[in-house]
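Researcher: We plan to redesign the surface later, but first we want a full-length starting point. Tokens attached.
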């Protein structure tokens, strides 16, 4: 029994192994086809140039269908709202909109403070842009409105162009807050109009791809640094300090130093208020995370905190008894539209472009995440237009630039939001607060808003863990992340972004110039070729060297490609060509000296015969005969000398490296795997021709393989192919080229066309 029990598992393992082997064999495939070069491939596949489509012609067409398509493209709400499934989605959108509005209220008040503006303008920025995006946006789940990063960028502009020191009253050295706020509101609204103009313009010219130059490590490093900027900017409200306005490079460092220096002047009541509010907010968030499965909606911790803090402040009198700063007067109702100030355009244009790009990058990245998760498409160009119109129209109604919030977008999705109807509901709820309920928050302490901002930074501050993950995954991306973070911290938000983009583009160029070069070997019994340094079983084909680059060859790395090729082949090509030319030059000089010597000897013999001339007719005739004989002998001697010189030099058809006494390469053919080539420029064409010329000089024939059809078309357009380099030197695959090279090894006989011409 024991033996039979033990043999059972063994038999099972043997059967499983046999089954796996049979399955692997069934997956084997055998293909028989002729060896194909480019000419044969084009003939077999009946290649023809693809007919170009002129898209600009459709742009100029005018028809009812074209007009309707344009209207639906630029006003997407007309496409999806008539087909809106009311029964299935309306309840979820209503609950989601209410949840987002409850978050939008405290965040709008707080982020206006972050932008250096009165809190009511945060409510305006939570209404107008949200409703405009409902009409023009293509993402169904992002929550447009105030956002910490955008607000701190706006705050850096308003505080630098309208600092507190510029509004000091001469009588009592206090800041004229009414005049200061009026100027800052004008700056912020004008900035919003400019941001909107940039975004709409870029969207209309289909420039949405510009965001691709902001890689994910760059955006995450930038938002992490911005969150640090936000945190530092709120310290004055947490401690109740009055700080001097600083802007430009190192302004964050100066602010931290000033806060540390003025800590003894902190207002105790303000610190206690901020700490209590922060603790309450953190506890509510922890409770939401723990009870997430059991709660239909997350507990509105921010709203509860705002209502409770406002009631306590009003009842206890925090402002008068403990010196706690409060929000102050909040006017009821909407403000009339105001035209932007064109005089400020010149000062704001650079910062407006930076804010426009950053705002769009944040919005489109979140939009694509939700679109991928829920199976729909986001149009990046239309998103630019929608976000631009939100900022443009919002700026006219005295809003500051907005983007979308990650925390509110997650709440909008998780609470059942399906479309931007949820956004419309939240904006209408904010409208009710602006018209009727806004004045109830006049006694809200600013320290509570600062605590709300700091607690909501948790998600962005968690991005510091990217350092550990990128260290393991990709250290080049980690370098981009760190440079972006440090540059943004030290140079402020606008200059930091510029430095980060320039650095990432330079790093891209450097990585293009330093690709991975490899010599390929054949994996046994296959037509697959891999790097011999990485695959131990891959073997170089005797007599054939296969070379590959992991990047395309262009003007930036063409010289590096040639140098790496010559180095990896193990032959000093340039030195060998130089030695060959020197030896050929010596033989040519030797031949010329021999010809001159024979000419001198012939001339001397002719002169000697001429001195013995007779004056008689018979002598003259005999003399002429002797002269003709002397000329004939001279010509024959010159021909013998030339023939002798050719024998010494082995003749034009025998000028081989072996005959010249030079070492020969260990291979007769070179195959260039050009599968990574995506385009060719003039420098690439010249480099390839030089490679053919140099290796043929050392008796190595060159072949190319695996070129894509567009690259072949560019080679033809650049007149790369000629009598010496034809499409017969270009093969469909590396294996085709290797087989052909083995069947046609380069002979030692050098063609007269390829002889080095001196």
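Model: Full-length starting sequence:
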């Amino acid at each position: 029994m024991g033996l039979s029990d033990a043999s059972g598992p063994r038999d099972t393992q043997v059967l499983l192994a046999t089954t796996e082997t049979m399955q692997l064999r069934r997956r084997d495939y055998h293909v028989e086809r002729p060896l194909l070069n480019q000419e044969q491939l084009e003939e077999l596949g009946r290649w023809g140039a693809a007919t170009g489509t002129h898209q600009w012609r459709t742009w100029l067409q005018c028809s009812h269908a074209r007009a309707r398509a344009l209207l639906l493209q630029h006003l997407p709400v007309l496409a999806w709202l008539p087909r809106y499934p009311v029964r299935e989605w309306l309840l979820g959108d209503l609950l989601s909109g209410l949840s987002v509005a409850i978050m939008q209220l405290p965040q709008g008040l707080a982020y206006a403070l972050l932008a250096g503006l009165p809190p009511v303008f945060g409510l305006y920025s939570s209404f107008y842009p949200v409703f405009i995006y409902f009409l023009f946006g293509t993402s169904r789940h992002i929550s447009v409105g105030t956002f910490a990063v955008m607000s701190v960028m706006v705050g850096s502009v308003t505080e630098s162009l309208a600092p507190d020191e510029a509004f000091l009253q001469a009588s009592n050295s206090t800041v004229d807050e009414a005049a200061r706020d009026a100027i800052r509101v004008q700056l912020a609204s004008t900035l919003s109009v400019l941001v909107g103009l940039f975004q709409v313009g870029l969207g209309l010219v289909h420039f949405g791809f510009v965001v691709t130059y902001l890689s994910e490590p760059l955006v995450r490093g930038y938002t992490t640094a911005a969150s640090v900027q936000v945190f530092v900017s709120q310290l004055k409200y947490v401690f109740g300090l009055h700080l001097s306005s600083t802007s430009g490079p190192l302004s964050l460092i100066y602010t931290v130093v000033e806060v540390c220096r003025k800590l003894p002047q902190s207002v105790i009541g303000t610190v206690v208020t901020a700490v209590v509010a922060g603790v309450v907010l953190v506890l509510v968030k922890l409770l939401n995370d723990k009870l997430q499965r059991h709660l239909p909606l997350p507990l509105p911790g921010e709203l509860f905190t705002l209502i409770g803090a406002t009631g306590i402040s009003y009842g206890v009198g925090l402002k008068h008894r403990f010196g706690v700063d409060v929000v102050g007067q909040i006017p009821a109702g909407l403000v009339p539209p105001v035209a932007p100030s064109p005089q400020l355009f010149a000062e704001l244009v650079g910062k407006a472009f930076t804010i426009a790009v950053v705002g769009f990058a944040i919005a489109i990245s979140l939009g694509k995440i939700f679109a991928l998760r829920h199976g729909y498409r986001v149009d990046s160009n239309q998103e630019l237009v929608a976000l631009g119109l939100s900022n443009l129209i919002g700026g006219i109604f005295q809003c500051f630039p907005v983007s979308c919030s990650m925390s509110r977008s997650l709440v909008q999705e998780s609470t059942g939001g399906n479309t931007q109807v949820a956004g419309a509901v939240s904006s209408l709820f904010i409208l009710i607060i602006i018209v009727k309920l806004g004045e109830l928050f006049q006694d809200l302490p600013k320290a509570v808003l600062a605590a709300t901002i700091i607690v909501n930074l948790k998600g962005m501050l968690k991005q510091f863990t990217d350092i550990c993950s990128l260290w393991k995954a990709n250290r080049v991306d980690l370098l981009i992340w760190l440079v972006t973070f440090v540059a943004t911290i030290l140079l402020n938000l606008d200059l930091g972004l510029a430095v980060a983009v320039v650095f990432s583009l330079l790093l891209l160029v450097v990585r293009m110039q330093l690709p991975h070069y490899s010599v390929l070997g054949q994996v046994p019994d296959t037509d697959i070729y891999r790097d011999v340094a990485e695959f131990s079983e891959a073997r170089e084909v005797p007599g054939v060297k296969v070379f590959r680059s992991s990047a395309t060859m262009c003007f930036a790395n063409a010289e590096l490609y040639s140098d790496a090729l010559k180095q990896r082949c193990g032959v000093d090509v340039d030195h060998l060509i130089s030695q060959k030319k020197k030896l050929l030059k010596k033989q040519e000089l030797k031949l010329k000296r021999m010809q001159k010597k024979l000419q001198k000897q012939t001339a001397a013999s002719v002169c000697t015969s001429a001195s013995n001339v007779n004056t008689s007719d018979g002598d003259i005739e005999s003399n002429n005969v002797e002269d003709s004989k002397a000329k004939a002998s001279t010509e024959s001697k010159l021909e013998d000398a030339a023939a002798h010189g050719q024998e010494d030099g082995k003749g034009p058809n025998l000028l081989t490296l072996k005959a010249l006494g030079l070492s020969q390469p260990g291979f007769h053919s070179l195959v260039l795997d050009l599968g990574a080539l995506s385009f060719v420029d003039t420098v690439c064409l010249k480099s390839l021709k030089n490679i053919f010329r140099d290796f043929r000089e050392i008796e190595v024939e060159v072949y190319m393989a695996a070129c894509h059809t567009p690259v072949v078309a560019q080679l033809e357009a650049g007149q790369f192919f000629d009598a010496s380099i034809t499409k017969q030197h270009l093969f469909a695959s590396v294996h085709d080229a290797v087989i052909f090279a083995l069947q046609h090894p380069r002979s030692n006989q050098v063609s007269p066309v390829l002889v080095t011409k001196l």
